[in-house]
Specification:
Elements lengths: L3 H15 L37 E8 L3 H13 L5 E4 L1 H6 L3 H7 L3 E4 L12 H19 L16 H9 L10 E2 L8 H9 L7 E5 L3 H16 L3 E2 L2 H5 L4
Parallel strand pairs: 1-2, 1-5, 1-6, 2-3, 4-5
The chain binds zinc ion.
């Protein structure tokens, strides 16, 4: 069965290709701290949510797309004082070498979402290694850190090879999510809000994307509705514990 997310993510990859943003990669290795193992669910070794007894949620964004849309989204997060987590595509960071620092300076978490946003599950071990290493290297170059978290591209869940390779570069757990806004499918503002609000609960990790107007249109309402439901958006490091 075709995973609609993978299809959409493949479209994102083709967009990057059109923009000529696919770049070469190089190896790098550093270490991250531990993430509480108990947060990994029984169904997957990935972290798909935080504590179900604490009314926090994490807005996690795929970091790619146009700079103008990124700036609009960051402005909404700033004006609403909403902390978030951005899983950045390395080629996107490289194309605009000020965005990584801007995200961190705004108090958000910044993580690795591979160098070129290829289909992580389908890559050879060598190619997967270079994709994770390339983004880690870009993060280190731009921010001095390889980032706190890793999310594979083109798949909601990791594979054993993805986990092994991520660990090599210091990412002890892969970050999945339990709430999908489907914003990458351009479903419209109302649907983005509804997709989140119908399934969000304590500890939810919500999948969202930079680079889509619907996300920007939905975000103010979404943030208000989350607060109205008693849920507070926090960074992943707040939800899961500090990762050095
Ligand atoms: Zn993505």
């Amino acid at each position: 069965m075709t995973n609609p997310r993978e299809s959409a993510e493949d479209l994102s990859r083709r967009s990057l290709l059109r923009l000529g943003l696919l770049a070469g990669v190089a190896g790098v290795s550093t270490l991250a701290g531990a993430i509480p193992a108990q947060i990994a669910t029984a169904a997957t070794p990935d972290i798909a949510h935080g504590s179900r007894s604490i009314p926090n949620v994490a807005l996690t964004f795929h970091g790619a797309g146009s700079k103008a849309l990124a700036q609009k989204l960051l402005a909404i997060l700033k004006s609403t004082q909403t902390p978030a987590t951005v899983f950045a595509v390395g080629a996107w960071l490289k194309a605009d070498n000020s965005i990584a620092k801007e995200i961190l300076d705004s108090g958000h978490d910044l993580g690795n979402h591979t160098m070129n946003h290829l289909q992580s599950k389908t890559l050879s071990a060598t190619k997967l290694d270079s994709e994770i290493a390339g983004c880690a290297k870009e993060l280190i170059t731009l921010t001095g850190s390889h980032g706190k978290f890793f999310r594979p591209s083109g798949t909601q869940y990791s594979t054993a090879l993805i986990r092994k390779t991520a660990l090599k570069y210091g990412y002890k757990k892969c970050i999945s999510y339990d709430v999908d806004s489907h914003d990458y499918q351009d479903v419209g503002k109302a649907a983005v809000v509804k997709n989140v609000m119908t399934s969000v609960r304590n500890g939810s990790i919500i999948s969202l994307h930079f680079g889509h107007q619907d996300t920007i249109d939905a975000l103010p309402t979404l943030i208000t509705d989350l607060h109205d439901k008693g849920l507070t958006p926090v960074t992943l490091s707040t939800m899961l514990g500090t990762i050095k």
